[in-house]
Write a structure and sequence with these properties.
CATH superfamily: Winged helix-like DNA-binding domain superfamily/Winged helix DNA-binding domain
Structural class: mainly alpha
CATH class: Mainly Alpha
Shape: globular
Largest sheet: 2 strands, antiparallel
Distance between the termini: 17 Å
Number of domains: 1
Number of helices: 7
Number of strands: 2
Order of helices and strands: HHHHEEHHH
Length: 146
Amino acid sequence: MRAAAVDDAAQALLAAWDTAREQAIPRLSWPQLNALIAVEQQEGINLRGLAAELKMILSSASRLCDRLVAAGLMERVPGRVDRREIALYLTPSSRQLLEELRSARRAILTEVLNRMSPGGRAALVRGLVEFSAAAAEPASDSARTA
């Protein structure tokens, strides 16, 4: 019962995120956005690392990066240690796009939160903080086998 309620709420949250993405960066696909976020979180990641992070084959990740480089949203720079290895970095344009996305997302979420009662908002924030912490913990052996 509780998992179903969380699943329903997650659907609403994902719909808000998708609306924000469409408002802020309609020309980017979800895989392109995920690539930008992965590079933002791991500046200088190489192509193999990005492919692993995105759970893609190397050639697909390479084509994805080609499109982002062509759009001026990502830079490929020779590695500092091994010049044959390519490091990936965001451009100022992609940083601005990600900031616009976050602003649009927060505006949509603020609008929804303002329709909630103060007690409901406080409980939601407490619950989400605890949920995030629990999700970051490794699963227990009993949870894995259940």
